[in-house]
């Protein structure tokens, strides 16, 4: 973005405060946009994205894994996290948030609830060797193929329901069962 300064402020000493003002204004507008996105995401969770229609009497239950929210892959804190907005909506009575410990949810089959998932392997036609697919898991008990993330999401939902009913966490989702 090229910034053209008026003739009166072509002096570098005068230009610096104006550039700082432009930069600060751009940062503020970016912050406001992110907040609007987060508010709209919470609105979608709470009301199904209905803006001006009548809202249902039922309060939605949002179940999320307890992964570290608000951090980038490099471990730096990000400014855009939905958790504070969800907690605020929960305090306002618009929805309920259940944060579930997601340990072993991608390692347990969501159909037979055994820790029997392994990476699916397919034959690579170019090299005639077996290649593992990271996103696809196969249960060697019930012989089903699962998308890793969908299976974990179903397990988080299952654990969330158990937590809401004050039931103990199944042993298959604990460290004592892992090999």
TrEMBL record:
The keyword Amino-acid biosynthesis does not apply. InterPro entries: Cas12f1-like_TNB (IPR010095). One of its GO terms (molecular function) is DNA binding. Signal peptide: none annotated. The chain crosses the membrane at residues 12-32, 57-73. Residues 88-156 form the Cas12f1-like TNB domain. The keyword Transmembrane applies. Keywords: DNA-binding, Membrane, Transmembrane, Transmembrane helix. This is Cas12f1-like TNB domain-containing protein.
């Amino acid at each position: 973005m090229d910034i053209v300064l008026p003739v009166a402020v072509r002096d570098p000493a005068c230009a610096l405060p104006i550039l700082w003002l432009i930069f600060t204004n751009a940062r503020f507008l970016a912050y406001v946009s992110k907040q609007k996105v987060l508010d709209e995401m919470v609105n979608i969770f709470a009301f199904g994205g209905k803006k001006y229609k009548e809202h249902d009497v039922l309060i939605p239950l949002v179940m999320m894994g307890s992964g570290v929210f608000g951090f980038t892959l490099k471990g730096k804190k990000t400014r855009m996290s939905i958790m504070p907005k969800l907690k605020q909506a929960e305090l306002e009575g618009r929805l309920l948030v259940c944060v579930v410990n997601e340990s072993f949810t991608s390692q347990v089959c969501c159909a037979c609830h055994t820790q029997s998932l392994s990476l699916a392997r397919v034959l690579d036609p170019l090299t005639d060797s077996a290649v593992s697919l990271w996103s696809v898991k196969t249960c060697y008990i019930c012989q089903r193929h699962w998308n890793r993330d969908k299976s974990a999401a179903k397990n988080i939902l299952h654990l969330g329901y158990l937590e809401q009913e004050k039931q103990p966490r199944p042993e298959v989702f604990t460290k004592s069962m892992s090999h």
